[in-house]
Every structure is written in structure tokens, then in C-alpha cells.
Design goal:
- 51% of the residues lie in helices and 16% in strands.
- The chain has one domain.
- It has 11 helices and 8 strands.
- It has helices at residues 3-10, 14-28, 35-43, 45-73, 79-90, 94-102, 109-112, 116-127, 139-150, 190-208, 235-243; strands spanning 31-34, 156-163, 166-174, 179-185, 213-219, 225-229, 266-267, 270-271.
- Strands 1, 2, 3, 4, 5 and 6 form a 6-stranded mixed β-sheet that branches.
- Helix 3 packs across helix 11, helix 4 packs across helix 11 and helix 5 (79-90) runs antiparallel to helix 6 (94-102).
- The model is unreliable at 266-273 (pLDDT under 50).
- It is an alpha/beta fold.
- The protein starts with a helix and ends with a strand.
């Protein structure tokens, strides 16, 4: 893939990816939503909507990097050409930005399945790094460690399900007859994580046309918990996410927006919680 594009992402070039997202929106009118926001929406739609808004640039960046990678792996784009477009777009060349956004666009799930052997080998390569104790530092690094150490060795691939003006980006493991969702658990009840993982699986199952969802809930220093679910149509989840209504529940205890939430306001002189 484009080394320069990945370098900019790792370097936190938020302004650059924000500008690319503006070009994307002007051309296609899409808002990028991560599948885990859909998972949050089944517990609290308001949490899911605010999370999706906060993470839009990051999830768009991941989607763009992935589709460029797929284009290079399928030999429909040369890395040197992609790097040239990235460099020009970074300097403000809007035409280069438009051309960059077309790289890898339009691949179908059926076409991407040709990459599954390579993507599985990529997972195995990175899983070798997950040795010894979990790394100290940000939670994200710990989650990545547990994922590569304990997740099933499947091809992990990202793709969007477009619904209205939402491009819901799902990254899941894809087996012959099921999709696989790995969830690193924190302080919420197990059933909350299971519900959220199942909703993410609904998105992936729709994209990849699989008839089962395998859910893996991994709690720090605990044996994993597995469950199977039958996929459902994710559109009701999308509608709930779009409405963004507050729903009192387990996410309240970790919600960073709880100070401005109706769950905490007094109504008619009586506290809601």
C-alpha cells in the first residue's frame, strides 16, 4: 500500500484526512460511521451517534487506507502513483485528492475475497508480535495485543455498507460460513458487550452474506467467552443511530457526554437517576 499514506495516519495528520473527508463528502455526500458505533447504538443510540461523530475522521482514514491497500494488492494501482497523489494532495492539490479518493473505490465483497489468503497471512505475521506481557501504555495498544494474540486466524477485511448517507465501515474476520467479531471487554456487563458485538456482526454478515456470527468477548487476564448469533437486518440499528435518542443503561457509567445528557437532568422537579 502507500507507505506515505500510512505514515501520515500514524503521525496523526488529522488536518490532511479531514480535508480529504471534505472532498469525499462534497463528491458523495457520505458520513463515515464505524460498525462499533452501531453496536453502541443498540444499547444507547445517543452514545453511538456522538461516538460516530467523534470518530468520523479516524474511521474514514482507516477506510481509505484499506481500500488503497486492496487496490495495490490486486495490482490495479501502483504504490509509486499512490504516493505521488498523496504527496500532491497533502500540499493542497484538490484534483490529486479527488484522484486519490477513487483508488480502490467500487470493489465488491466478491472481488475482495480473492485477497483472503494474503490477509490471513498478514494477520499471522502480526500475531507473532503478540508475545510476552501486554504492552504498557494506551488502552488501544493493549486491545491490539489481545486481538492478535487471542483472535482466530482469519482474514480480517474492512468494507462499507452504505445506507442512505451513511457509510458504515465494518472490519471483521470472515470465514467460509460465518463472520467473526472480537470484543475486548472493560467494566460493562458481559451481556452489553455481547449485544454490541452481535450488532457489529449484523453489519458484517450483511456485507459478506454469511449466515452466522461468531462472537468472542475477551476480558483482560480471563478465558475468552464465545457465542454464536443468527444475523439480523442492521437497518433498525442504523435508524436508531440516526435518531440518536438517549437510552438509560450500562453505557451511562462510561459515557463522556453524560454531563449534558437528559438521563441526568431533572424533569418536573424529579431526578431521572
Amino acid at each position: 500500500m502507500s507507505r506515505l499514506l500510512r505514515k501520515l495516519a500514524r503521525g496523526g495528520a488529522i488536518d490532511f484526512f479531514s480535508r480529504l473527508l471534505e472532498v469525499e463528502k462534497s463528491a458523495y455526500g457520505l458520513h463515515y460511521v464505524p460498525a462499533n458505533a452501531v453496536g453502541y447504538a443498540v444499547v444507547c443510540p445517543r452514545f453511538g451517534r456522538l461516538y460516530a461523530t467523534e470518530r468520523e475522521v479516524a474511521v474514514f482514514s482507516r477506510a481509505l487506507i484499506d481500500r488503497v491497500k486492496y487496490a495495490v494488492l490486486m495490482k490495479v494501482a501502483e504504490p509509486s502513483l499512490v504516493d505521488s497523489l498523496v504527496a500532491r494532495a497533502f500540499k493542497g492539490d484538490r484534483e490529486a485528492a479527488r484522484r486519490l479518493l477513487e483508488v480502490g473505490r467500487g470493489f465488491t465483497p466478491a472481488e475482495l475475497q480473492r485477497l483472503f489468503d494474503q490477509l490471513r497471512q498478514e494477520f499471522l505475521y502480526y500475531s507473532k508480535a503478540a508475545r510476552g506481557p501486554p504492552p504498557a501504555g494506551p488502552r488501544g495498544a493493549e486491545e491490539a495485543y489481545y486481538f492478535y494474540k487471542y483472535a482466530e486466524a482469519l482474514p480480517y477485511v474492512g468494507h462499507v455498507d452504505v445506507w442512505g448517507d451513511m457509510a458504515v465501515y465494518s472490519v471483521a474476520g470472515v470465514a467460509t460460513d460465518y463472520v467473526y467479531v472480537f470484543k475486548f471487554a472493560g467494566d460493562l456487563p458481559h451481556e452489553a458487550y455481547k449485544s454490541m458485538a452481535a450488532a457489529e456482526g449484523d453489519v458484517a454478515a450483511k456485507i459478506w452474506q454469511r449466515q452466522r456470527i461468531k462472537i468472542h468477548i475477551q476480558t483482560r487476564d480471563q478465558p475468552p467467552k464465545f457465542a454464536w448469533a443468527d444475523p439480523k437486518d442492521p437497518v433498525p440499528h442504523y435508524k436508531a443511530l440516526k435518531r440518536g435518542e438517549c437510552r438509560k443503561g450500562p453505557l451511562c457509567q462510561i459515557c463522556p457526554w453524560r454531563g449534558d445528557c437528559e438521563c441526568l437532568r431533572e424533569r418536573h422537579g424529579a431526578a431521572v437517576i
